[in-house]
């Protein structure tokens, strides 16, 4: 399903608070924080010329977040960044002076961090990021997981020292339970979705994602003409679309939001003209995107700057995992988890449809940017779906490189 954006706000400027959150200056601050982390390395941007030729376009470029900060997901940039920022802000308030990353190991700052507990709901990746950030600063983390989160992903979160709380129901149920328990205990919720009265911290999470865009644009010889990004609650899609709109203005690339058909909260919001909660049905294999209610801030941004909303099916997600693992020509092999290649799946669907190509202006001159948002965060499931282990695919990529 494909829907051009017809919202009354489409084409309008971002609200000042959203523009400040996703500005070039804010993105520079994120990169400054990352540069001071010993585990930070820019992730690769892969060109796929054989795939581009097949699709009849000038280029396909994949930012590979499967190699981000040892977590295997772009979400390493969001939750951990927000936790560190919040500890710094609390230390500045308590100590009455400016604090930077070098001060995080000082006893007085560690004592402040140790008294803080950060909680969140997760499908897997965001919880790992929050837990990692808490461990880096010496704070506590309590992570709420719903029944659809695999044991492998839960173990990966617990490995960072987080307390795990299991919640019956869906991701949205775990979001509500995390908010309730954190409120009762005086803990800080670090969510990647927003609700009325709760926007600042999810804004920090989204701000963290802008680092991958700064890197990618430096790695590209020319800016993209089109961008396809997958969405759960909408954080990475809104961060990408909003930042690119601010950076390029009227020359911004055309932007398409890609939802799983079984959890299409942004597509349905676009169809309704306002944020909606979609019914929970059969779970989607795209587990990191299994969200049934959009972030209000993400919707506010995307209603203004997304050109279109679309959905892809289960088989599309699995097909693109396999295509990236077994490339043609000189294209590199890429390890992409169940949710990682959904933006690319959206591009493949559009490229096969002449009418949609015309609607989006997808031509032989088009340069398309997508984000591989995760690697094999559940290696056993990856191997079952692809028929190869992540290590085998990664080794193939190294050999081809």
Automatic annotation (TrEMBL):
EC assignment: 4.3.1.15
InterPro entries: DiNH2opropionate_NH3_lyase (IPR010081), TrpB-like_PALP (IPR001926), TrpB-like_PALP_sf (IPR036052)
Cofactor: pyridoxal 5'-phosphate
One of the record's GO molecular function terms: diaminopropionate ammonia-lyase activity
Protein name according to UniProt: Diaminopropionate ammonia-lyase
One of the Pfam families matching this protein, by short name: PALP
Segments passing through the bilayer: none
Chain ranges of the Tryptophan synthase beta chain-like PALP domain: 38-358
Key words of the record: Lyase, Plasmid, Pyridoxal phosphate
Organism: Ensifer adhaerens
């Amino acid at each position: 399903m494909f829907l051009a954006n017809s919202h009354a706000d489409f084409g309008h400027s971002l609200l000042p608070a959203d523009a400040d959150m996703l500005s070039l200056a804010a993105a520079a601050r994120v990169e400054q924080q990352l540069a001071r982390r010993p585990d930070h390395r820019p992730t690769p941007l892969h060109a796929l010329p054989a795939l581009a030729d097949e699709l009849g376009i000038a280029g396909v470029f994949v930012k590979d977040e499967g190699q981000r900060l040892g977590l295997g997901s772009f979400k390493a940039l969001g939750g951990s960044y927000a936790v560190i920022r919040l500890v710094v802000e609390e230390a500045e308030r308590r100590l009455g002076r400016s604090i930077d990353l070098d001060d995080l190991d000082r006893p007085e700052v560690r004592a402040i961090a140790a008294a803080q507990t950060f909680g969140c709901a997760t499908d897997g990746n965001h919880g790992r990021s929050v837990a990692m950030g808490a461990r880096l600063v010496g704070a506590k983390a309590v992570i709420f997981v719903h029944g659809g989160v695999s044991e492998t992903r839960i173990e990966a979160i617990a490995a960072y020292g987080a307390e795990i709380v299991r919640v019956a129901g869906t991701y949205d149920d775990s979001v509500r339970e995390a908010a309730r328990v954190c409120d009762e205990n005086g803990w800080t919720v670090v969510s990647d979705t927003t609700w009325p009265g709760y926007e600042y911290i999810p804004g920090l999470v989204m701000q963290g994602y802008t680092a991958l865009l700064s890197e990618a644009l430096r790695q590209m010889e020319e800016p993209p003409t089109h961008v396809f990004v997958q969405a759960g609650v909408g954080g990475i899609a809104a961060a990408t679309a909003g930042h690119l709109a601010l950076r390029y203005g009227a020359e911004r690339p055309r932007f398409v939001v890609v939802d799983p058909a079984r959890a299409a909260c942004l597509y349905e919001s676009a169809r309704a003209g306002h944020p909606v909660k979609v019914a929970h049905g059969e779970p989607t294999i795209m587990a990191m995107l299994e969200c049934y209610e959009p972030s209000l801030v993400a919707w506010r941004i995307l209603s203004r700057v997304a050109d279109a909303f679309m959905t892809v099916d289960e088989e599309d997600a699995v097909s693109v995992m396999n295509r990236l693992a077994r490339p043609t020509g000189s294209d590199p092999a890429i390890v992409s988890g169940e949710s990682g290649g959904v933006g690319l799946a959206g591009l493949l669907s559009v490229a096969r449809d002449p009418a949609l190509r015309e609607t989006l202006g997808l031509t032989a001159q088009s340069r398309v940017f997508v984000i591989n948002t995760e690697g094999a965060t559940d290696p056993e499931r990856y191997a079952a779906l692809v028929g190869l282990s992540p290590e085998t695919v990664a080794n193939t990529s190294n050999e081809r490189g």
